[in-house]
Amino acid sequence: MAHSNIKFFILTGDPGVGKTTLTKKILAILSDKGIKVAGFYTEEVKNNRVREGFDIISLEGKRGRLARDQSLLNEPTKFKVGKYGVLVEEFEQIALPCLAKMPDNQTCLILDEIGKMEFFSTSFKLKIKEIFSPTSNNVVLATIPIRKSDAIIESIRNNSKSKIWVVTRENRNTIHDDILNEMQKVFNY
């Protein structure tokens, strides 16, 4: 039986195009098929249609603040992206336990997203390096920025075990079929 060596299923695309929605859809389908899932996703926080920041949510349902509009914070944060202050400790409290025990190769690790805000956390960054290392046998569904980014993110993008899907408004409602077909080669569902 021919085995595909794709282990890293990578989504990218413009901000707000629907990568998290797609991630959650794939996650639900995998769960239905009896595949174990672990990890986290990030979500916009809006108030009266105004974006106030982002939360991180673990697949166990724990939620923390990843970033907030500076004007909503009592004190400035050490790290900023645009108008957002990044709450590294809160992010780590949710993200790091998700990645603490490396799942076996029958678990799909969900990392939505691996980006600039998340990489202000050094421990998260090191964990990501480990997850995508040549010796790792993790199966990963991850989101990365479309623009050229940190060297670790670029090495994920260019990894021989990675397959990249660019999510667009045109394909976002149908692309999960293609991704799940590729995943089937790993999980044999």
From TrEMBL:
InterPro entries to which the protein is assigned, alphabetical: Nuc-triphosphatase_THEP1 (IPR004948), P-loop_NTPase (IPR027417)
GO MF annotation: an example: ribonucleoside triphosphate phosphatase activity
User: Which Pfam families does the entry mention?
Assistant: NTPase_1 (PF03266)
In terms of domain of life, where is this protein from? Eukaryota
Record has Transport as a keyword: no
Going by the UniProt record, its keywords in alphabetical order are:
ATP-binding, Hydrolase, Nucleotide-binding
PANTHER family named in the record: CANCER-RELATED NUCLEOSIDE-TRIPHOSPHATASE
NCBIfam families membership: PRK13695.1
Full protein name:
Cancer-related nucleoside-triphosphatase homolog
Q: Which organism is it from?
A: Papilio xuthus (Asian swallowtail butterfly)
